[in-house]
Amino acid sequence: MAYKATKFLDTQPSVIASAAVGGKMESEGPLGEYFDKINEDPYLSSDTYEQGESQLQKQAVIHCLQKVGLKGSDIDVLFGGDLLNQCVGTTYGVRSFGIPFLGLYAACSTMSEGLMLASLFVDRGISDRTMAVTSSHFCTAERQYRFPLGYGGQRPPTSQWTVTAGGALIVGEHGGPPYVRACTVGKIVDMGVSDANNMGAAMAPAAFTTVKTFFDDTGMAPSDFDCIVTGDLGKVGSRVLCELMQREGIDISHNHKDCGLMMYHLQQQDVHSGASGCGCAGSTLCGYFIPKLRSGEFRNILFSATGALMSPTVSQQGESIPSISHLVWLSSETTV
Length: 336
Fold this sequence. Notes:
The protein is α/β, with parallel strands linked by helices. Helix content is 34%, strand content 22%.
């Protein structure tokens, strides 16, 4: 059965493996134990931070493949992207694997888009096994989107800390839980927010639009899910999302989880409004949520990562921040 934006997957493919890698600050947060590898060196033994971010992607792919005894040649297509110009973190990170590649840019929602496309390729019989990978790095993001690290600019309370992490997963026809049951393709939403230091407020309306669309399309309710997971709305965006849903008579306050609020100890680690970056939702999904779905601790989650489709150039020109959120329904149960 298909709806305008929400698609049910006929074969309900499996996420057969996932892996998450992170940095030192991530290891000190509440999710530290869920990473497969921690890198104490922000350069990851490379010459530049950008090369270091590529290493995050490479590590995530390697760990993911090793978990199920596969090689790059066993994967039909790899979907990947990051926050850097021309997605060079991904292209340089995965170039050695020889996997057919489709690059993505959905900002911090890249993992939900990658998982959605990887699942649809398997469900429609285009591929037997697919992968999705993404990453972010605090130092590369700061250099590109804000100021050089040595500038020492004051961060306002609404700002978020870019996660240094990567996540990768493999989708296949058969492999046990979790299963991909449905997905909702997001729309670009722009409510006129232009403050690049308040990404949560900019992205929350996109998450609201996509999550509400899923409930409208399917007739399901928040109570059908253990968790409704957003990518990196942080304190400000999470509050806005819950308020927007409440206005529509939909209460998600009891089971809403935001990766941007889960990654760090907000006060102790001084991250202001929370975490952000492609690696935030990517590593939290791959390291925390997928294993809990596989074990049956969670039965059903909605994963709706969020991304701000901006660039430093257009922000400096006074443009507002358009955002998007793609949603995937993951379940420990299948009806096939």
